[in-house]
Design a protein that fits this description.
The structure is a homodimer.
Chain A lengths: L1 E5 L3 H10 L6 E7 L14 E4 L12 E4 L7 H9 L3 E3 L8 H15 L2 E3 L8 H12 L3 E7 L2 E2 L1 H8 L4 E10 L1 H8 L8 H4 E9 L5 H9 L9 E6 L2 H7 L5 E11 L5 E11 L2 H21 L4 E3 L6 H4 L4 H8 L1
Parallel strand pairs in A: 1-2, 1-4, 2-3, 4-5, 5-6, 6-14, 10-11
Antiparallel strand pairs in A: 7-12, 8-9, 9-10, 12-13
Chain lengths: 326, 326
């Protein structure tokens, strides 16, 4: 399979390293809106190409993995590219997924292509586990916990406060809430009871630290509904201790079965990730295999992770699966 | 969907209670090799029918869920029934799955039916999670831990020892091994390092308890390779404290991504089940929905859980999935 990467930030680099782990795939080109000569990529033999020239690569790329941001890039980028390429994106604005799906679906159908949106881990593997667990345990409750991990959106929100040089925000699940859920108690939990937020902030010299702290902890939606701690650190400490992008979390369904629901059944899917973008990249790459196979069967249009069988994304043969994995 | 249950032991009853939780399904008949009048089932309106008359129900049942044992029942039962019905079974003899698959496949193709084998949680949901995790993290190690839970096979093995009236064996994962694996240390673990075995035994009055204990702990394959504890209890204690069939376990994959594998990524799928047969039954019922849908599309032959997309087994509409689950 010949793979293209469209956009080369953290996620694009994660996709690149995942492609190198899959012998049935080859990275042929990285497309960038920056000056191509300014980019240095890790894959020998792959080209760096201006995004403006992407249509010239229509016949050389089997699946294009789009590594743009959900806020402004993907709503335009994915439909535009889906006219010419089979694509995979990681669109993660949950409330706008149906609209994005519809736009991408008509573009992909017009181009005769397969387009997978909202791949990754949430949306993606977490969604898929919510669906499986709900199908297996129709009477039950779903819980999703995120973290401990860096939220880019919350870190960015802090960086926009006057006087802030850099910031890193960790989303942390509340351990007591997790244990309550795992034990099948079916608690009703507020946002504050489920997660807390830890902020590490580098301030400008002479900045009013208390004003920054107040601006953070009172910020609606982002921080006000949570117990939020703010710690001011130096730029050196930021670089030394907070350069990584770990994340993870748990999707838990607690259900009941049997006479009068007498038996508790708990399903948990848990991720502990040293690198969020590299794991997301790994998911996009595995599903690119599925997109390639759907296209080879003549399918077209927009799909989600719900539409792929496990066999479709696996590199194993049917014989290997039956003998070793079942 | 009209569902039949073939065999009415613990698993058959688990399937029956799962059907009652799914409004798109109806149990129409339970087939038994015992005298039908000796069976009392929980579903109003469903019939109890002699297994000998099963072929008369060809046109009244959409999917037959076969609840026989893997050792002797299913190898003959599933191919025989797959000629006349779409079927689901829970065949769990891992090493003979390819042979069972081949036999069921030719029967199902001859009959124009869809047959799903080896559904449940292991094989089943655990297999599927091993496949997903391996596709996402191609460089890594798989670990499967079972328990704490009752192993029927090990309990039966103890019951065959002279002087034993009843027995219950719990498979227990070794907590230190689990923690080592979860932390991404990639240990190589022997059988003894992964699981221990707890046995509760009711002996005949006057039996040689030390001889029974020795017969258990030295039993090849079943107990000798493990740290095994044996506790003798009364029949009353057995009935009071060991009447349930809890089980569960974890499938864990620890992989690496990034430059020189610098980042650890851990995926864990964990089940904590009060009732093993009811959870297995819930899985069989969810996948019966998928079998029905594959048959409606004109597919035939044998399939595994690897061949179903999550959407195929879910009762939700595409709109519900995109809006609420993705």
């Amino acid at each position: 399979m010949n793979i293209g990467i469209y956009g080369y930030g953290n996620l694009g680099r994660g996709v690149e390293s995942a492609i190198a782990q899959n012998p049935d795939m080859r990275l042929v080109a990285v497309f960038t809106r920056r000056a191509p000569e300014s980019l240095s990529i890790a894959t020998p033999g792959a080209q760096v190409v201006s995004a403006a020239q992407v249509e010239q690569w229509k016949d050389k790329i089997d699946v294009m993995i789009i590594c743009g941001g959900s806020a402004t890039d993907l709503p335009a980028m994915t439909p535009a590219l889906a006219k010419h390429f089979c694509v995979v994106d990681s669109y993660d604005n949950h409330s706008s997924i149906p609209a994005h799906f519809a736009a991408v679906d008509s573009a992909a159908k017009a181009g005769g292509k397969v387009a997978l949106i909202s791949c990754g881990w949430d949306p993606g593997m977490f969604s898929l586990n919510r669906l499986y667990a709900g199908a297996l345990l129709p009477e039950g409750n779903d819980y999703t916990f995120w973290g401990r991990g860096v939220s880019q959106g919350h870190s960015d929100a802090i960086r926009r406060i006057p006087g802030v040089v850099d910031a890193r925000q960790y989303t942390v699940p509340v351990e007591e809430a997790l244990e309550q859920v795992r034990s099948g108690q079916n608690p009703e939990l507020t946002a504050r009871q489920k997660h807390k937020r830890e902020c590490y902030v580098v301030a400008q010299e002479g900045a009013d630290l208390e004003a920054i702290r107040q601006a953070i902890v009172t910020m609606p939606a982002y921080f006000a509904p949570y117990d939020t701690t703010v710690e001011f650190i130096t730029l050196e400490e930021m670089r030394k201790n907070h350069a990584q992008l770990p994340h993870g979390g748990s999707v838990i369904r607690t259900g009941v079965t049997g006479k009068d629901g007498c038996h508790k059944q708990v399903i948990e899917y848990k991720l502990t990730l040293d690198s969020n973008p590299e794991f997301t990249g790994s998911a996009l790459v595995a599903y690119a295999r599925g997109v390639y196979r759907k296209a080879a069967k003549g399918e077209t249009g927009c799909v989600s992770v719900f539409d792929f069988s496990p066999a479709e994304i696996s590199p194993l043969s049917r014989e290997q699966m039956l003998s070793h994995m079942l």
